[in-house]
Amino acid sequence: MTYGLSDLDSRAFREEWMMTTNLEVLEEPVGNKIREEHHTTDKRAIIQNGGNSMTLEMDKYSGSGIGSKNDYLFGRFDMQIKLVPENSAGTVTAYYLSSQGPHHDEIDIEFLGNLSGDPYILSTNLYAHGNGGHEMQYYLWFDPTQDFHTYSIDWNPQRIIILVDNIPIRVMHNRQNIGVAFPTRQPMMLYTTLWNGDSWATRWGQVKIDWSKAPFIASFRNFNANACIPSSSNNCYGFNSGKNKGLNGETKMKLKEIHAKWNVYDYCRDFRRYAHGLPYECRKTNNRKGLQDEDFE
Ligand SMILES: *[C@@H]1O[C@H](CO)[C@@H](O)[C@H](O)[C@H]1NC(C)=O
After folding, report:
1. pTM value surpassing 0.90
2. Which domain of life is it from (predicted)?
3. CATH class of the domain comprising 2-295
4. Phi, psi for residue 69 in degrees, rounded to 5
C-alpha cells in the first residue's frame, strides 16, 4: 500500500514530548482528509495543497510536528524537505520512525541547524529494543535550505537504508543472528517535527537559538510511504514478497564515496566515548560476522 501526506495528522508537539518517547496516541483517521480544525488548533503545523505539502513552524512558545495515523512494520518512506533557511542554529528538524512504549525502536534522520552560511549536519541514529548510540553524521553536498530534496528511510527485515535523493548514505544490516538488536518486531509510526535542540545540536550546544529570528519554518512535500500496516491478515515479514534488494556494486561504491567525503561522525570510530570497547558490531573481528554473502564487497 502507498500512503501520502494525508496519512499524517498535524498536531501540537510540545517540546517535553519530544524529549521522551511517550508521544501521545494519535487521533483516529478521518477518511483521507486532514481535519479542518487542525488549522485552527495548531497553526504551527499546516497541511496544504490537498495534503501534498506541509510546513512546520517553531516560535519561542513551541515547536511543532506531525505523526502518521497508521503504524507500519517495514516499508519505504520518502519525504521532500526544505530546511529552515538562514540562521537555523539550535533548531532540529527530524524525520523518523518510532514505536511506542518501553524498549522502543526508532530510526532517525535529524537535521541539525547552523548559523547562516555554516553547514547543517544530517544525523542518523537507530534505537533497537531501547538501545541507541548508533549515530552517524554527515554534511550534505548541497544547500538543503535552497531546494527540496528527498530523504528516505527504507526499512525491511534484512536491513535499513537511509537515502538522500535516492543515494544511499547509510546501511544498517540485520545481525540479530550474532546478537545485535535490530527492529523487526514492533510497528512504528512516522513523525516529522521541528523543535528546540539548542542544548546539544549546533557545535555541541555552544550556539543557541536566536529567537529574534523566529518563527522558524521548514517545508515538506510529497510524502510517500510504500509500507505494510500489520494486521491479522497482513504478514509484514513477507512485505514486497520478501524481495528486498541490498545495494549493488554501483550503489556500494557510491556509499563508500559518500562516507569518505561527507561523514563527520561515526559511532564506530568514537574511541573516547567507547573507551571500554566499541559496540560489538563495530569491532573489526565482528563487523562482518552475520552478514549474508550479498553484503560483502
Ligand atoms: C556548524 O558550523 C560549524 C563551523 O563550520 C561546524 O563545525 C559544525 O559542524 C556545523 N554544524 C553543526 C550542526 O554544528
Report:
1. no
2. Eukaryota
3. mainly beta
4. -75, -30
Ligand 1 center to residue 204 CA distance, Å? Answer: 9
- Residue 287 C-alpha to ligand 1 middle, in angstroms? 30
pLDDT at 272: 94
Lookup: cell for 129: 529494543
The long-range contacts involving 113-117, CB below 8 angstroms and separated by at least 24 positions, are 113/83, 113/84, 113/87, 113/88, 113/89, 113/201, 113/202, 113/216, 114/88, 114/89, 114/202, 114/207, 115/87, 115/89, 115/202, 115/207, 116/86, 116/87
Q: Where are the alpha helices (DSSP H) in the chain?
A: 15-19, 37-41, 249-262
Quick check: CB of 51 below 6 Å from ligand 1?
no
Judge if the beta carbon of residue 140 lies within 6 A of ligand 1: no
Q: Is the CB of 135 under 6 A from ligand 1?
A: no
Catalytic residue among 57, 110, 135, 250: 110
Q: Is 202 in the pocket of ligand 1 (CB under 6 A)?
A: yes
The per-residue pLDDT for range 210-251, each reduced to its tens digit, is: 999 999 999 999 888 888 888 877 788 887 766 677 888 999
**Beta partners for 66?**
10, 192
Q: How far is the CA of 140 from the centre of ligand 1 (A)?
A: 12
